[in-house]
Design brief:
40% helix, five-stranded antiparallel sheet, alpha+beta, 6 helices, extended
Length: 179
Amino acid sequence: MWKINDSEPAPKFNIVERPNTWAKAMKKTAALSETENLKLAFWEKFNNEAPKYSAFIREFKLRKPQAQHWYDLGLGSSAYHLCMTLNTKNNCLSAGLYVNEDKDIITRFKSNEELVSKILGIINPNEIEWRLDGNKKASRFLILHPMGDVNDKDNWDNGCAWLCDMCVKIKQVVKEILK
């Protein structure tokens, strides 16, 4: 019993048992398909590898990995964000800038395509994929990176390193063009 000053006595409870988060996590992954488990494992690997890249960690805050093909990072604006994808069908990664609705923003990047290529370290500007469909709300540019076989976890370290490097460069592009 607890008693504070002249208060009435109150019961004191001690936690004896609490929910088992490990069991909950196992149930969650058991319900996933093989491909979803692969995606979740890749993004978990990314979260474990990213802190090794000081330039990346200075610029970005990691988020909880999910069993999906994309992983987004904030860039300080609700109008756009950094997007990364793991394409299990084509065995490649991508990193790019996703612009929600503001066509003027993506137009600024497209009109500075040469500068974008230079900052990203891309020799051939055709390596940047521009998705500027006027009928869709969102637009983006992205860079693709072949992974070899995404099922081969030996390829993941290289893929995570490429993503960290490219994310830092994309943020530099954003700072330069939207300054």
